Amino acid sequence: MKFVIDNWMLFAVALVSASLLLWPMVSGAAGASALTPAGAVQLINREKAVVVDVSEEAEFATGHVVGARNVPFGQLDTKLAGVVKNKGVPLLLVCPTGARANRAVAAAKKLGYEKAQAVAGGMKGWRDAGLPVEKA
């Protein structure tokens, strides 16, 4: 006990360091990061991931991921089950910037799609990565 009292500053530094290292796991931020476009391509190729664009129809028509299905964010609760029947496949959600897609991940997980992920940067990130885009 005398050692602890004599070296209290070292223990305080160790405690703060451990807390900062563990904070992302405790707060849930560790799993909240979005999937990179390159990681999304790997999931599409290896695990037959389904891409769902949560943009509005006009935004979807200006350009979307090749093979993506359009389910506007406001209609996600009612239409997602009809578009993606297999809840076991990875579900990649995308929108113009990634903001709606991040919110859509929570909605999809509530519907039972546990492998739902947002593509980082949305369509902007997809285009910046030089990946193919098709127009409706």
Automatic annotation (TrEMBL):
- Fetch the SMART domains from UniProt: RHOD
- Name of one Pfam family that matches: Rhodanese
Annotated coiled-coil segments of the chain: none
Q: What residues does the Rhodanese domain cover?
A: 45-135
Q: Which Gene3D superfamilies match?
A: Rhodanese-like domain
In terms of PANTHER family, this protein maps to: FAD-DEPENDENT OXIDOREDUCTASE, RHODANESE-RELATED SULFURTRANSFERASES
Q: What is this protein called?
A: Sulfurtransferase
Organism of derivation: Pseudorhodoferax aquiterrae
Biological classification of the source? Bacteria, Pseudomonadati, Pseudomonadota, Betaproteobacteria, Burkholderiales
